[in-house]
Amino acid sequence: MRTIKIVYLWPPSFTLEVTATLPARFEVCSGCGGEGTELGYGLKGLAFSAEQMNEDPDFRESYFRGDFDRPCSTCSGRRVELVPDAGRMTFRELRRFKEWKRYKCECAHDDYADKMTQWQESGCPRDDCGPIYPEGY
Ligand SMILES: [Zn+2]
Fold first, then answer.
1. Rounded to two decimals, what is the model's pTM?
2. Cα 79 off chain centre by
3. pLDDT at residue 47 is higher than 80
4. What's the CA-to-centroid distance between 71 and ligand 1, angstroms?
5. 20 to 30 A Cα–Cα from 73, which one of 40, 81, 82, 136?
6. Which long-range contacts (CB under 8 A, 24 or more apart) does 133-136 make?
7. How far is the CA of 39 from the centre of ligand 1 (A)?
8. Residue 42 CA to ligand 1 centre (angstroms)
9. C-alpha 38 – ligand 1 centre gap (Å)
10. 81 vs 116, which has greater pLDDT?
11. Neighbours of ion ligand 1 (CB under 5 A)
12. Where do the structural domains in the chain lie, given as residue ranges?
């Protein structure tokens, strides 16, 4: 049986570290959608307008040709990832799984807020286009 090890800080105080081994299965990678690659060179998560792309045809061509791609950081190019399998968990494992998901969600929220602050302060890694804000922000 495949298993996955999870580590998180126990809610609600987030001071006690919990380690658990849970039943797991392979799924299409959530990081790349099964492509095996992602944008590198600081371009991941950035958005470019059609005007910006048209101002730099060489960049546009390289971008769409995949010159800035690198192996996915989630799956290392394997296109699948090991994920917890809730359908095969005991009650105790399921409780750990739910705590871990909650912890990951709260951490992702913090990462997003940090990234927004970084973009607002520093702008795009390509120095010609200035700060870029995601849609709806
Ligand atoms: Zn991937």
1. 0.61
2. 14
3. yes
4. 8
5. 136
6. 134/45, 134/47, 135/47
7. 11
8. 17
9. 8
10. 81
11. 29, 31-32, 72, 74-75
12. 1-28+80-122
